[in-house]
């Protein structure tokens, strides 16, 4: 019989590429995979996936009641459904998985997507953060199979809990080169300007302290360029109001959340990709965003804030530039410098080819599957 594995995450599954890649890799290895998330009113269709999925329709969709609702629902689902391996994603699914692993004597694998208790939403709410930290302190030292998104966060957890933490970077599946791809044809198809330097800021978490406000303001000082903001987040409505107030509607457009395959089409049309998280909290300071690797696979040079893990990649492969301060004038200056240097852009694009060959899921998947081979 196939070994059964239940993977749980609090997202709605449709845009969580890290979890999708993990589920698909395990399915291809012969596991009977069930991926659990939640169902929202605007959840996208995922019926074409080869593995099984289940999305909980919950009474609450945000705040403490949501987490209590989800964790209770997950606990009873895991209690009354057979599995050989439990696979928890992030701290907000760990407690029910851990309890069931002890009750049923099952193997637990834990994928920590970030330094969870360092996210700004928790840092500003010490009581709630204390609850999550207590759960983490209780469970984390007892874990055997645990990994996270980069070495800086792995080192932090190892120092704190004296547990070996593996690293699995959030890299996408390697794109196959389409010899018929034409940037101009794609821009026409997607209704993007042909004669402008196209800048993209993408992500499902375009939130406070991620450079969105400063980028919009910077576009006042950049000519012959067009900014595409693709994704959702807490500050999107603020950014849209800024565009109106600053009269930048001819320089900036917004595209809401879309399937990953569609997002890639927009990203491939860009000339510069932005990843501008600020070092305002430990989670952002040590982050290695998905969009960095999406830009790399799409052959798009990168303008990044000065964060340790992102800077390491950008400088190692020489595929972009770092901005020291996330101020509108400083951003505009950097963007203008890149636009004016065609030779530098060509060099970065050439270097991106090697980066794309190295930083992809085909390579990272080998390390991922070794974790599960160790279980067997």
How would you characterize this protein structure?
With 376 residues, this protein is α/β, with parallel strands linked by helices. The strands form 2 sheets. It has a 7-stranded parallel sheet. Strands 10-9-8-11-12-13 form a 6-stranded parallel sheet, sandwiched between helices. Helix 8 (212-218) packs parallel to helix 9. The protein has helices spanning 17-28, 63-79, 94-104, 120-123, 126-139, 151-161, 183-189, 212-218, 236-245, 260-268, 282-285, 290-297, 308-317, 328-340, 342-358, 361-375, and strands at 4-8, 32-38, 52-56, 85-89, 107-112, 145-148, 166-167, 197-203, 225-231, 252-255, 272-275, 302-305, 320-323. The chain starts with a strand and ends with a helix.
- Cα distance, first to last residue? 14 Å
Classify the beta-strand content into a percent band. Answer: 15-25%
Helix share of residues?
A: 40-55%
* Total beta-strand segments: 13
Shape: globular
Q: What order do the strands of the largest sheet run in, or round the barrel if closed?
A: 3-2-1-4-5-6-7
Low-pLDDT runs: none
| Major sheet size, sense and barrel closure | 7 strands, parallel
* C-alpha Rg (nearest Å): 21 Å
Mean pLDDT: 94
Structural category is alpha/beta
Helical element count?
A: 16
Give the SSE order as H and E letters: EHEEHEHEHHEHEHEHEHEHEHHEHEHHH
């Amino acid at each position: 019989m196939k070994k059964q594995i239940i993977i749980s995450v609090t997202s709605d599954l449709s845009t969580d590429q890290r979890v999708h890649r993990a589920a698909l890799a395990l399915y291809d290895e012969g596991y009977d995979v069930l991926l659990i998330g939640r169902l929202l009113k605007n959840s996208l269709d995922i019926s074409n996936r080869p593995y099984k999925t289940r999305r909980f329709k919950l009474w609450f969709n945000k705040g403490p009641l949501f987490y209590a609702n989800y964790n209770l629902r997950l606990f009873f689902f895991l209690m009354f459904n057979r599995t050989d391996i439990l696979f928890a994603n992030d701290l907000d699914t760990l407690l029910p998985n851990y309890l069931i692993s002890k009750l049923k004597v099952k193997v637990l694998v834990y994928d920590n997507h970030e330094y969870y208790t360092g996210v700004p939403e928790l840092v500003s709410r010490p009581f709630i953060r204390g609850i999550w930290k207590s759960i983490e302190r209780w469970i984390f030292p007892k874990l055997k199979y645990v990994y996270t998104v980069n070495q800086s966060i792995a080192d932090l957890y190892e120092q704190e809990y004296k547990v070996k933490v593996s690293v699995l970077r959030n890299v996408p599946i390697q794109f196959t080169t389409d010899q018929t791809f034409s940037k101009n044809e794609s821009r026409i198809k997607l209704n993007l300007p042909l004669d402008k330097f196209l800048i993209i800021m993408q992500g499902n978490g375009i939130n406070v302290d991620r450079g969105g406000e400063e980028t919009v303001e910077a576009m006042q000082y950049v000519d012959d360029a067009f900014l595409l903001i693709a994704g959702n987040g807490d500050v999107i409505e603020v950014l849209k109001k800024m565009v109106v107030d600053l009269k930048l509607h001819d320089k900036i457009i917004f595209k809401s959340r879309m399937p990953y395959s569609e997002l890639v089409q927009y990203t491939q049309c860009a000339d510069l990709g932005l990843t501008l998280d600020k070092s305002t909290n430990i989670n952002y300071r040590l982050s290695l965003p998905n969009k960095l690797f999406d830009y790399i696979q799409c052959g798009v040079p990168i303008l990044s804030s000065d964060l340790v893990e992102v800077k390491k990649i950008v400088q190692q492969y020489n595929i972009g530039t770092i901005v020291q301060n996330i101020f509108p004038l400083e951003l505009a200056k950097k963007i203008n410098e890149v636009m004016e240097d065609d030779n530098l852009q060509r060099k970065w694009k050439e270097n991106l080819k090697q980066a794309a060959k190295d930083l992809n899921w085909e390579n990272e998947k080998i390390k991922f599957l070794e974790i599960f081979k160790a279980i067997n």
